[in-house]
Q: What sequence folds into this?
């Protein structure tokens, strides 16, 4: 869950800010941990993982900051070629970031359901008794 939350934060940030030619904003080391391009979660040393509360706070801050960014984008800004993926538009890259975030949100909900199911034993059926 922690990796999916951090990944959503980094991908939306990268897709948005880099496509606009601006610096992405996330703590040092997060891109390496959460991008999916550098380290696999199992390869991240335990002491390098941020606390889940830190990731949640970063997501909340990001939401407010990016709302302002999006509110100030014009149609020509959105239709322009993304600075880091010139074959794509800024609009495409932002929507791709949202799509990726939505997919990882689904993964987090599924993992939470699985954790809850593992924490509460299933009722025993008559056949199992």
A:
């Amino acid at each position: 869950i922690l990796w999916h939350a951090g990944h959503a934060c980094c991908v939306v940030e990268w897709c948005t800010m880099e496509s606009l030619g601006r610096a992405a904003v996330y703590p040092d080391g997060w891109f390496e941990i959460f991008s999916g391009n550098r380290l696999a979660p199992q390869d991240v040393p335990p002491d390098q993982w941020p606390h889940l509360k830190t990731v949640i706070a970063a997501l909340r801050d990001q939401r407010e900051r990016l709302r302002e960014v999006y509110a100030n984008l014009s149609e020509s800004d959105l239709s322009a070629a993304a600075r880091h993926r010139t074959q794509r538009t800024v609009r495409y890259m932002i929507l791709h970031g949202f799509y990726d975030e939505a997919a990882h949100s689904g993964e987090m909900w599924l993992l939470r359901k699985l954790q809850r199911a593992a924490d509460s034993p299933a009722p025993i059926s008559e056949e199992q008794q």
